[in-house]
Design goal:
209 residues, 18% strand, globular, Spore Coat Polysaccharide Biosynthesis Protein SpsA, Chain A, alpha/beta, 33% helix
């Protein structure tokens, strides 16, 4: 069911197409298919259930062809690392919008969970980040522009550890694992396809949904 139009305003989804693709022979991992659907399309569909506004954060010269009608935003900072991609994602949304960030290699990300993240930010948090058994999931999270200066400070001091950045963010609403499980198994919701073996596992997971 689609959300009311007024509930979808003020939110921009940012799909982060990060990570090297050497394990797939140079083919972008988010363009691989799970259940006959490209992973990037699965992520985009989950975001579009929350907001029609999407940007794609990618440095590839081919990125404009990956999602029809979706603008591409490239890193403006010269440093490398996932923290830089997160910075670009938050900085790429229109001023005043909530940045709903999702990695492009998460085929089972939940629209309902994404909606909860936005709700938590609208209730006053500067960021809403869910927890998995492996810790916080900053690439399935919602942020306001208040987080940017803290991320920039981390980059400036050479601290590219996402765990450090998340800890330093102000007024974060943590979605605990118990609450996350309302939307499904965290091992599935946050599953990343990084290797051919992961892709095979994702296919098995999709077949048993």
């Amino acid at each position: 069911m689609s959300r009311p139009a007024d509930a979808r305003r003020g939110v921009t989804g940012a799909i982060v197409a990060g990570g090297a693709n050497e394990r797939f022979g140079g083919e972008p991992k988010g363009l691989r298919r799970v259940g006959a659907v490209r992973i990037i399309d699965r992520v985009a569909a989950a975001i579009r259930a929350v907001t029609p506004q999407i940007v794609l954060v990618a440095n590839s010269r081919e990125a404009e062809a990956w999602l029809d009608g979706v603008p591409v935003r490239r890193d403006v900072r010269s440093e490398r690392g996932s923290v830089v991609g997160l910075h670009t994602a938050i900085a790429s949304v229109p001023e005043g919008d909530i940045a709903l960030v999702a990695a492009w290699d998460m085929p089972f990300v939940s629209a309902a969970l994404l909606s909860l993240l936005v709700t938590r930010v609208r209730e006053g948090a500067s960021a809403a980040i869910p927890e998995s058994p492996d810790g916080p999931e900053p690439f399935c999270a919602a942020y306001t522009s208040a987080c940017l200066s803290h991320i920039e400070q981390a980059i400036a001091r050479g601290d590219f550890r996402l765990s450090s950045v998340v800890t330093a963010l102000p007024n974060v609403s943590r979605i605990g694992e118990t609450d996350v499980r309302r939307f499904g198994d965290p091992g599935r919701l946050f599953f990343n396809v990084n290797t051919p073996a992961d892709l095979e596992e994702a296919e098995r997971m999709a077949a048993t949904a």
